[in-house]
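Sequence in, structure out.
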Amino acid sequence: MANHTTVTEFVLLGLSDACELQMLIFLGFLLTYLLTVLGNFLIVVITLMDRRLHTPMYYFLRNFAVLEIWFSSAIFPKMLTNTLTGYKTISLPGCFLQSFFYFSLGTTEFFLLAVMSFDRYVAICNPLHYVSIMSKRVCVQLVLCSWMAGFLLIVIPAFITFQQPFCGPNVINHFFCDNFPLLELICVDTSLIELLSFIVANFSLLSTLFVTATCYGHILHTILRIPSATERQKAFSVCSSHIIVVSLTYGSCIFMYIRSGKGSQGEDRNKVVALLNTVVPPVLNPFIYTLRNKQVKQVFREQVNKLF
């Protein structure tokens, strides 16, 4: 990579170059990052401490919470450091790692959401066979496959991208090493890389979205056939949190990477959408899953009462 690269570092322009806004941006992102880490860490702790939450549903939720912590940590620490110090550069290896982890973990998130949808499908549509289908071994295999899929789908496009010569300028109009701004800095034709990135993005988003939508289509059909209104409401409440998270995650990603705009307006629009995708789902997920889940709230209250 070093033999073909003349650029050794990049300059991340960030969200704004206005000096008077830097401290406000720093404090806002610091608060958001702390809430994300603490909220998701709380989910991990709660689901580990109480045996009532040692079920496939909470096993997947625990993995999802760990994923959100890592996903945020791929972006926030460097962004906070650059905003606070005003030194907005990032090394070429650092840019590669940031880009790879961001997209790899983001892709893993899609597969985990699909797995969580399948879990809810089995629980509601095939409750009598739930224990046998969603065994501990199957759950571990589904999680491992999700993590492996995120790694394998991204490692080749990322490696090919950073093998290309970056001849300058080295300025990235973004707050992290996003794929599209990086491609604009490559000296050679990037048509094949763009095609490969487009295929990977479409496959990871649309294939997992198809699984999720299919599962929830069957779930909705099953719920509507339940004669008791109370049971229908109970079944729907179990899935509502997941539906909200799926909508937030897929909505912003589809807009950003399948309908990406070019030019200054497109870059600014994609930057805003990337910010929403990076900030909103990870920080809201703990609140969505805890505030809308009676079992988690009950366990949380019991643990707090034990402490006080």
